[in-house]
Amino acid sequence: MASTKTAAGAAVGAGPAAGGHAAAVATRRFRLDRSTPGRLRLLLGVLVLLSLAWGALAAFTVNQYSSAASSVVAVREPLSLDAQQIYHDLSDANDTAATAFLTGGLEQPATRQRYLADIQAAGTLIETATAQGGATRGGASKDLATLSTNLPIYAGEVETARADIRQGFPLGAAYLREASDLMRSTLLPAANDMYAAENASLSATSAQATGLPFVIVTIAVGLAIIIVLARASRWLRRRTHRVLNSGLLIAAAAAVVSLAWLAVAYTGARGDLLTAQSHGSAPVEALARADITALQAHADESITLIDNGGDPNGADEKAYQREKSALGPGPGTLLTVAETAAAGSQASGGATAAVRDAQAWYAAHVHLRTLDNSADHTAAVESALGSGPNDAGAAFTKLSADFATGITAGQATFAASASAGADAFTGLEPAVIAAALVMAAGCAWGLSRRLAEYR
Amino acid sequence: MRTGARRVSGNGKRSAAARAAAILMGTVLLAGAAGCSAAAGPGASLTQVLDAAKSSGAKRTTTHTQVTPACDPTAASLRPPPGAPRVTAGSWMAHIQARHYLIAGVSASSFNFGYFNPIDGQFEGFDIDMIKAVAAAIFGTPDGHIQYKAITDDERQPDVMNGTVDIVAETMTINCKRLKFLDFSSVYFEANTRVLVLKNSTATSLASLGGQKVCATKGSTSAGIISSYPVTPRLVLVPVPQFTDCLVKLQQGQIAAISTDDAILAGLRAQDPFTKVVGPPFDPQPYGLAISKQHPEFVQFVNAVLAQERADNGWATSYKKWVGTPVPAPPVAQYAD
User: Fold this and answer.
1) Could you report the predicted ipTM of this complex, rounded to two decimals?
2) Residue A276 gets which letter from DSSP?
3) Contact A102, A305 (CB under 8 A)
4) Interchain CB distance below 8 Å, A170 and B149
5) CB contact under 8 A, A178 and B151
6) pLDDT digits (tens, 9 = 90+) for A209-220
7) Using the beta-carbon criterion (under 8 Å), do A309 and B110 form an inter-chain contact?
8) What is the C-alpha to C-alpha distance for residues B35 and B21, in angstroms, rounded to an integer?
9) Which of B120, B148, B242 sits opposite A104 (nearest CB)?
10) How many CB atoms lie within 10 A of CB A434?
């Protein structure tokens, strides 16, 4: 370390050989010794500490954002998707069960399959959500318990209804009503609660992953360190008349690279996560809300026919009308909100089609009610279940398919964008730590070499 | 008179004016039946109808106050004109005919009386046969001419009163309280109150169920019997929309018993062989078809249909099919006059 071939080193090294001015030189050396090497030592310490601090801060920042981003992808979203799926499956099961026994006669195998698939899927999802840790979270755990306790009771009542119906007993209809009441008063509210909680939690996590203040502080600190390195380099150049200190140069390069990577990764991840939200989870949530309300309206359409009251002011028809006005389209209604949320995203096609097909369904419903109200109950039931172009059944199937298309597209966008967002941070954490170590080493090496020249 | 009334009611069934006219038509007809001669001729104006009604109003009230104190529910109906039921011009039957269907309030869940058969998707039962007979008398055939409205027991009276239905055939007991608001046909079935319990129950009657939960539908006479039954501690009434809901509760162990007409209990027992009907028959329940007081001519028409049913074995055939054998003699028709 003492051997040096640089010009400055030779000039200083020549000092001791000039014995004639020993005192003066000694004084000067003493002053130099007190000023430059001391300052160098101080600078070395400060720069090494700053480098390490940068490493710690940057690594911490990356860790925070990256784990929030992974949470969005890996923990929150599946649970949130599950909650939405559970809500959908339960609504669909109830709607299917109500519709299955509408006609009289043997239930359609497809209807039975659909009901069973819904119940099975909901059961599996409830189990998975419980296993995934939903059980440890306050609100969700209560809702999951409600769901897992009451789903078998609901299914049991539907099967009892089925057995009674198979014997031609009107008791079956009473069990079906009992089951539907349990679904609407207990199961669906719990699923809704959980869905709302998961959505809120997803939004919070997304906000954390895309939040600005923390990363701005980190980037500012990084920039400050680069400025310190630049100023140190300039000071050193003036003091020692060297053009460049390769140690500091390496440190600065490492700082710039790590800072740039951090900024690029964050910007990319933020863009992706915001896209996941605006073109993914937001349209999906809006569409899911509309979908579930449509399912409930459809169940009410069926129950109106089962109860056969035909009363335009009957409770079931009133419930249908309420759900219809909630659906819209119109300002602030579920369909319009979904269409707005989906605009410009992959889900947009499904949302726009849903607005169109909902109106076709409403028109078919009016026709169905007219039939039922003019003593043509059979034709009304045929319309409710029919697949013809003007049948309410076909119109609702179309509407359901639109929702499914939109939701699937939104979910795909979400999954792709959110993973891209989380992937943006891949390898960054070890990289910033390595960069910090390189910076510390570079500073130490570069300044030690200068220091050594004073010995 | 009838032509005039028909023209008025043809202006629109839903409008307030038409409703008033319909009420008036009923009033006028009733007045006519009571022997009042102040009838408007054919083509009478609304004013003439109104005047006719006004002049006969007092008499009509008198007629009713004379009937009410000596209320005999089984003999409170209007005597039909002799002969087969006839759809007279301007009558409510003519109105129904013009509409192309009869609107009947029925039960969807009273097994073997009025229920929606889930196997073939049709309304069936003894009550339904009575409705079919009425529709057949108006249209020649009941097929495609009946709009069934499945209503709960507590909807029967208001639905008849506000004209939501033309007629109710839903195991409905004729009693003096209801006669103040509704007209009934002659008695077409005689039921008695009894009790249904699970097979392993030790209960023998309502008297042995003191302090326990007993189920009946809201708005039924049975609910009234349960809540006022003289036993200590009192029975706890569990009111539900339909009697099948009572059976669900009995099967789930939420109640101790169901108490209502034996006709209904037999239907519940048929759906669950693990139940039994206990106790002596009490509190006779004569069933009648309920019709609005605005249409006395329709009450007479329905009575003529029932008279025919009793005479030509239609009643016995339905009884055999839905209630069973042995088939008793049909209830003898008694009228208020």
Assistant:
1) 0.73
2) I
3) yes
4) no
5) no
6) 787 788 888 888
7) no
8) 21
9) B120
10) 13
